[in-house]
Design goal:
It is built from 16 helices and 15 strands. The structure holds flavin mononucleotide. The site of flavin mononucleotide has 25 residues, from strand 4, helix 13 and helix 15. The site of flavin mononucleotide (FMN) has 25 residues, from strand 4, helix 13 and helix 15.
């Protein structure tokens, strides 16, 4: 690919752990809703083939649960040997486009959906999940050995399936992030309390993943700069968290924010697609709750470009491994500025849902920003037939 017209190194190859990536743009993990019965479908493969063809250096296949009880949607993938051949077809398709493949692996912890898993969500401490209208279950020390093992097994299977990287979901209020957050982790043992304790179990999981990944696969950790509410994990703790993950063997961290069960739109910013969310909610009670109280239950955060860029600079300065920035990276100028400030690369979600070709168009100098309008109806769509740009559908393109 040609260097960008602005002259930055955005479109030059670079090294991330054991990987050589063709440029500094990565498709951010965006749950696709394309795994009926938790199995990757043809639609998922074609979705990522298109993203890979559109020019990113690596595409992240989103949310693969390490165990069936770590899911909050029935269409979320969960890892087992039977799905490896279908995953292999997908990684082959991605590689044929000259693109690397990453698998986001995680566990929803306390906000796992009992309607999907048949059990209450496992969490560091008991907490109330408003939109589930139920409590999470506090994990005893004996409950934690299994998820550790599940993360390792999932990584081994991902490697077998041809993935170049795994991205451990350590942010957004998922299980690892529930341990990091003082709001959801009120444990009195050596896994709760000061940050050195709260990070202990998440770092142990990353170390297990590192061991299972072997030397040829990259290990990334998506982590929060900030949970986005008082009492949650704040930005001052983020540099130490990045260091702990690096010491546990991560090759890079992906910096985001927000807590799914409290501040789900903090990681997105922009409009709240209440009407579409109501339409896709199967439970009549929750549908009613959402339509009456959706705007009260889900805090709205106005969109702004590159919304974690400034706040994340202390992480960039202190992290021993490359920091990949995500969140509102919709303009070339923010990537150029981010590079100058030390970010290694940029993960793009909505711009590549809106237009998978966006990175190539940037590289060719045809555009300098995404025309995504942050209506966030793509978020509702992931639960209503599969992620797509609803605005583009309506425009008939
Ligand atoms: C439809 C949709 C689904 C998402 N699903 C996930 C997910 O499964 N895992 C995750 O870490 N982030 C998820 N996100 C958040 C994105 O990875 C990203 O952090 C966020 O969209 C901000 O980046 P953007 O401004 O480039 O879209 C999702 C975002 C969207 C729009």
């Amino acid at each position: 690919m040609e260097p960008t017209p602005s002259g930055s190194d955005l479109f030059q190859p670079w090294t991330l752990g054991p990987l050589r990536l063709r440029n500094r743009m990565i498709r951010s993990g965006c749950f696709e809703g394309m795994c009926p019965d938790g199995r990757p479908s043809e639609a998922l493969r074609e979705h990522h083939r298109a993203v890979a063809r559109g020019g990113v250096a690596m595409t992240t296949v989103a949310y693969c649960a390490v165990h069936p009880d770590g899911r909050s949607y029935a269409t979320e993938m969960w890892m087992r040997p039977e799905i490896v051949p279908a995953l292999r077809e997908m990684t082959d398709a991605i590689h044929r486009e000259g693109c690397a493949a990453s698998l986001q692996i995680g566990h929803c912890g306390g906000f796992s959906d009992p309607r999907v898993t048949g059990t209450r969500g496992l969490a560091p401490s008991r907490f109330f999940v408003t939109y589930r209208l139920g409590f999470a279950r506090e994990a005893g020390a004996e409950d934690l050995a299994r998820p550790e093992e599940d993360f390792a097994t999932t990584t081994r299977l991902a490697r077998e399936a041809g993935f170049d990287a795994v991205e451990v979901h350590g942010g957004h209020g998922y299980l690892l992030s529930q341990f990091l957050s003082p709001w959801s982790n009120r444990r009195l043992d050596d896994l709760g309390g000061p940050l050195a304790n709260r990070v202990r179990w998440p770092a142990r999981v990353v170390a297990r993943v590192r061991e299972a990944a072997g030397p040829a696969m990259a290990v990334l950790v998506k982590m929060n700069l900030d949970d986005g509410f008082p009492g949650g994990q704040r930005a001052q703790e983020a540099p130490a968290i990045a260091r702990a993950f690096a010491e546990a063997g991560a090759d890079g961290v992906v910096l985001s924010g927000g807590f799914t069960s409290r501040t789900p739109f903090y990681m997105l910013r922009g409009d709240l697609p209440v009407r579409e969310m109501v339409q896709n909610e199967p439970s009549p009670l929750r549908r009613l709750g959402l339509s009456l109280f959706g705007r009260l239950l889900v805090p709205v955060h106005p969109y702004q470009d590159a919304f974690f860029l400034e706040g994340g600079l202390p992480v960039v300065q202190e992290s021993p491994v490359p920091v990949i920035l995500v969140g509102g990276i919709h303009r070339r100028e923010d990537m150029t500025r981010g590079r100058a400030l030390g970010y290694a690369a940029f993960a793009l979600g909505r711009p590549t849902i809106r237009d998978p070709e966006f990175p190539s168009r940037l590289a060719r100098g045809e555009v300098d920003h995404s025309d995504c309008d942050r209506c966030n109806r793509c978020v509702a769509a992931m639960d209503g037939g599969g992620v797509r740009c609803v605005t583009r559908d309506l425009e008939g393109r």
